[in-house]
Write a structure and sequence with these properties.
alpha+beta, 142 residues, 31% helix
Length: 142
């Protein structure tokens, strides 16, 4: 794993982890590396200071990766909570459920789940309104 400091064309700075340098290049060329703040696809590596482990005496405070640290992360957390509390998680059946609701063979309701990119694209092409969510999904316990 490798961590890069990144900067978009709107001067937003953020960090992200990648499996390798080659993985970053591949994802970047495919337009899949986007700004964590504004969503811009014009993202480049920024100059980054090396992370050097200090002794226990000079231990630096590392920020929590699980708590929001800026307004964009707070907004995404609020959206995630809203979606999880007001929608049904349908897992990998998302594309089927969305299509069934659109065709009237399933009751309309708010849903979220997982779809393969080609399935999501087909839904959009067929006029079925869907949108990607800017957060990782949490599976609800039964």
């Amino acid at each position: 794993m490798i961590q890069y400091a990144l900067k978009c064309d709107n001067e937003h700075s953020f960090d992200s982890w990648f499996q390798s340098a080659a993985a970053f290049e591949k994802l970047s060329k495919a337009g899949m590396v986007t700004c964590a703040v504004c969503g811009s696809e014009k993202v480049d590596k920024a100059i980054m200071t090396p992370s050097v482990k200090k002794s226990e005496k000079g231990k630096k405070n590392t920020p929590s990766l699980t708590k929001p640290t800026n307004p964009a992360e707070h907004a995404i957390k609020k959206l995630k909570t809203y979606v999880e509390n007001n929608s049904d998680y349908v897992g990998k059946d998302f594309a089927t459920e969305a299509r069934d609701m659109h065709e009237g063979t399933a009751p309309e309701r708010s849903i979220y789940g997982e779809a393969k990119p080609e399935d999501a694209k087909k839904l959009i092409e067929d006029g079925i309104p869907v949108t990607p969510l800017p957060f990782a999904l949490t599976r609800k316990a039964n």
